[in-house]
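help with this.
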Amino acid sequence: MDLTALGAGIAALTGIGAGIGIGVATAKAVDAVARQPEASGKIMTLLLLGGALAEATAIYGLLVALAIIFAK
């Protein structure tokens, strides 16, 4: 039985985790800016850095999924 498609599907699920993580981080950043508007520049910088790292995780998952499919 070939489990390549199952492995690629599991690797592609990292996109869901990244999406949830970015959503939670954005919600927390909006909450933080609402509480302390004077810190919005610092909060946005950290939010963009965290979002970029979360997206990198999703891209790595996609690359692993493609490697699993085409590495035969």
In short: Helices lie at 4-12, 14-35, 40-70. The domain at 9-67 is CATH 1.20.20.10 (F1FO ATP Synthase).
